[in-house]
């Protein structure tokens, strides 16, 4: 159905703004202070602010969220330039570093009027004019937690600063066209009024332009989305699905299926030609998959564990028989900092250690499922070698030689081979090199 033949329920359908740009800045400052003082997730702080300010329109809320997330993207560097870690300092520094506003424009917004932030002080003006990151340490200039810097250096080498800067930018808004419903060209035509254009690497992807403040159209209420014509999925996640190399006729287990992003992609890629079985340790994470399957026409057998510990039972009949096991592992998500900047400041050494233990657990489970000659495809959205090559090495060692690493076939994605970073065991996508989230993919096979 062509777009203009049917009711239009989408586009930038946010309510008229009620707050002035200055009042939105005051709100963002308040929320950033709340996040800092109570160490709470940004989403919770934004929700609470919205509940306490019900008069604000959805357009206001979206703009304030965009300011808060931009502030989090540049939290360390903005604080360095402004010489303070308050919500106000981070917001002012962010307006210059992230949004490229000059001091007079920022001064104009901080006019001290009703609901506006207090006027800039002399010190703030000077810092805005003269402040620089030239003397900032890499973790500050690159806005990353200091404790993961050695891992990031190991991952990126000489490209460290370029990659950190790329991770500090906003992510593009990408969708994966559902090939079970239409071609990419047909979807692009249907979404032409949004300006959707092909993604650089994924043959299934379309990129939807966003506004100056990073806000995009409300795709989740788009008629084509509601008909199952596309899913919102970063290009890197689409590429990881393609690199899984699933072929029609195979029996495939998606061991960490979560809400089903990759399971849906695999069904679409194979034209429902593979036997796909999806499960997850957490039934709540799996729950959205049912509605997504209905919408998309994807055929996936979902096996829901009664509790986390019961998941082994739901797959017990498949041990030693599976052609391909996709392990889209729980990870720190360091490769997704562009879209989830809150996560980098919430990351702790303990949470990294927990994810590494979970990765070993799921890989061991995958090793039991795969048949001799079958493949395990290990995927993370992390750029930390501890969660990537080291996790693969761990399984190879524990398997006593029965599981071996093989090259990941990149031929499904023209142009990727020249762009992607090769590691000892797999391939690493990154914001700097492939322009995607930082997905890692490694392939292993069972020899006997
Ligand atoms: C990266 S997310 C999966 C995302 C999903 N594949 C997608 O594309 O939308 C990782 C998932 O692993 C699950 N998980 C964690 N430990 C697990 C385990 N031991 N066995 C199976 N799943 C596990 C988590 O509940 C989480 O949903």
UniProtKB/TrEMBL annotation:
Entry keyword set: Methyltransferase, RNA-binding, S-adenosyl-L-methionine, Transferase
EC number: 2.1.1.176
Record flagged with keyword Coiled coil: no
InterPro entries in alphabetical order: MeTrfase_RsmB-F_NOP2_cat (IPR049560), MeTrfase_RsmB-F_NOP2_dom (IPR001678), RCMT (IPR023267), RsmB-like_ferredoxin (IPR054728), RsmB/NOL1/NOP2-like_CS (IPR018314), SAM-dependent_MTases_sf (IPR029063)
Gene3D superfamilies assigned: Vaccinia Virus protein VP39
Signal peptide: none
Domain SAM-dependent MTase RsmB/NOP-type span(s) in chain numbering: 163-447
Binding positions (S-adenosyl-L-methionine): 280, 328
GO molecular function, one term: RNA binding
Gene Ontology biological process terms from the UniProt entry: RNA methylation
Active-site residues, record numbering mapped to chain: 381
Superkingdom classification of source: Bacteria
The family this protein is said to belong to: Belongs to the class I-like SAM-binding methyltransferase superfamily. RsmB/NOP family.
The protein, known as: 16S rRNA (Cytosine967-C5)-methyltransferase
Protein species of origin: Methylorubrum rhodinum
């Amino acid at each position: 159905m062509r777009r203009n033949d049917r009711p239009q329920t989408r586009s930038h359908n946010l309510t008229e703004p009620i707050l002035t740009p200055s009042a939105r800045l005051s709100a963002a400052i308040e929320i950033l202070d709340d996040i800092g003082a109570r160490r709470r997730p940004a989403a919770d702080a934004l929700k609470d602010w919205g509940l306490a300010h019900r008069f604000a329109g959805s357009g206001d809320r979206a703009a304030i969220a965009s300011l808060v997330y931009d502030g989090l993207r540049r939290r360390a560097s903005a604080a360095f330039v402004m010489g303070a870690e308050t919500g106000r300092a981070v917001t002012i520094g962010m307006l210059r570093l992230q949004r490229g506003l000059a001091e007079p424009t920022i001064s104009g917004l901080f006019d001290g009027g009703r609901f506006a932030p207090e006027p800039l002080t002399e010190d703030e003006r000077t810092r805005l004019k003269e402040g620089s990151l030239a003397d900032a340490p890499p973790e500050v200039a690159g806005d990353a937690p200091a404790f993961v810097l050695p891992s990031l250096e190991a991952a990126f080498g000489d490209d460290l600063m370029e990659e950190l800067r790329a991770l500090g930018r906003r992510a593009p808004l990408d969708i994966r066209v559902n090939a079970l419903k239409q071609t990419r060209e047909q979807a692009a035509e249907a979404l032409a009024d949004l300006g959707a254009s092909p993604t650089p690497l994924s043959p299934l992807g379309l990129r939807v332009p966003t506004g100056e403040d990073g806000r995009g159209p409300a795709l989740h209420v788009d008629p084509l989305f509601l008909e199952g014509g596309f899913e919102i999925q970063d290009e890197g996640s689409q590429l990881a699905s393609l690199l899984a190399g699933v072929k029609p006729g195979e029996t495939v287990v998606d061991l960490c299926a979560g809400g089903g992003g990759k399971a849906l992609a695999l069904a679409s890629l194979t034209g429902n030609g593979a036997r796909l079985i999806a499960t997850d340790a957490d039934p709540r994470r799996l729950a959205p998959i049912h509605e997504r399957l209905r919408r998309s026409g994807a055929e996936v057998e979902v096996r829901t564990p009664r509790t986390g510990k019961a998941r082994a039972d739901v797959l017990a009949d498949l041990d030693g028989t599976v052609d391909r096991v996709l392990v889209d592992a729980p990870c720190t998500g360091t490769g997704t900092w562009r879209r989830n900047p809150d996560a980098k400041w919430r990351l702790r050494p303990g949470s990294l250690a927990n994810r590494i233990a979970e990765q070993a657990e799921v890989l061991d489970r995958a090793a039991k499922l795969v048949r001799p000659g079958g493949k395990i495809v290990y995927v993370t959205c992390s750029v930390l070698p501890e969660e990537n090559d080291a996790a693969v090495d761990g399984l190879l060692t524990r398997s006593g030689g029965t599981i071996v690493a093989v090259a990941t076939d990149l031929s499904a994605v023209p142009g990727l081979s020249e762009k992607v970073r090769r590691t000892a065991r797999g391939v690493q996508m990154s914001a700097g090199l492939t322009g995607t989230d930082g997905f890692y993919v490694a392939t292993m096979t069972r020899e006997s």
